Amino acid sequence: MPERRRILIVDDEPLARQRIERFVRAYDPAFAIEEAENGLVAIDRIARFRPEIVFLDVEMPGLNGFEALQQLETRDFQIIFQTAFDQFAIRAFEEAACDYLLKPFTAERLHQALARALERAASEERLRTLEACLRRQPENRYLRRLTVKQGTRLRIVESHDIYCFISRDHTTCLYFSDGNLQREGICELSLGKLIERLDPTEFRQLHRNNIARIPAIRALTRSPNREIFVELINGMKLPVSR
Q: Any idea what the Cα angle at residue 189 is, between residues 212 and 154, rounded to 5°?
């Protein structure tokens, strides 16, 4: 059974709270609703109830609506301000409010604001889900495209087109496929930085002076003096550290 959406109604007038609750129930009777009669109580309710949407009055005794928001360390809910005064509208939207209801407002007007808040809450939830998914998939951190310098020209190379990286005289040379041609360019990253940022299932450092793309390896060979080399599909041979 899905969790009920949580709505907090903050207003110092009991009749105003009852009216908002009636309008909200007319929109969807399944909402879980709590009330707060002032800003101080609202802070406690927000911490305990963790609402997704807060209907927040501006002018209240003690802490007003804006002051109550300033006391919160985090704000993971949508705000709909309701007030009898229009001079607070700019400040309300500076607080990233979904909507600003001028009293007296109709049920239809509240439903419009509520629909907007629910859509924004759903969008933010989808974004959080996507971010969590990306965090669970570390391969998304890996370099898939690199910038390569060829003379005065910069170009972008896809990782699946790369044969290998070779360090020469403190410079990282990159060899890659360009259609049926082999190209050479300069990569700004050192081998040490590259091996941290490349997918370890696709790239392997074979020697202190080279990194090879694993699918580009064609054969492993041994020289007469027992040195080990890999032969790449482009014909290059790279030494392999013991």
A: 100
What does the pLDDT look like over 105-126, one tens digit per residue? 999 999 999 999 999 888 887 7
Report the predicted TM-score, pTM, of the whole model to 2 decimal places.
0.55
What is the structure's pLDDT at 1?
Answer: 47
Q: What are phi and psi of 229, to 5 degrees?
A: -135, 155
- Phi then psi for 106, rounded to 5 degrees? -90, 165
Residues of the chain with pLDDT under 50: 1
Report residue 173 CA to chain centroid gap: 34
> Is the Cβ–Cβ distance between 162 and 176 less than 8 Å?
yes
Alpha carbon dihedral 83, 85, 88, 93, in 10-degree steps, equals 50
For residue 140, the model assigns a pLDDT of: 55
Tokens describing residue 13:
């007038």
Round the CA-based radius of gyration of the chain to a whole number and report it. 30
Separation CA 34–CA 133 (nearest Å): 32
Tell me the three-class secondary structure of the chain, residue by residue.
CCCCCEEEEECCCHHHHHHHHHHHHHHCCCCEEEEECCHHHHHHHHHHHCCCEEEEECCCCCCCHHHHHHCCCCCCCEEEEEECCHHHHHHHHHCCCCEEEECCCCHHHHHHHHHHHHHHHHHHHHHHHHHHHHHHCHHHHCCCEEEEEECCEEEEEEHHHEEEEEEECCEEEEEEEECCEEEEEEECCCHHHHHHHCCCCCEEEEECCEEEEHHHEEEEEECCCCCEEEEECCCCEEEECC
Encode pLDDT of 162-189 as tens digits: 999 999 988 999 999 988 889 999 998 9
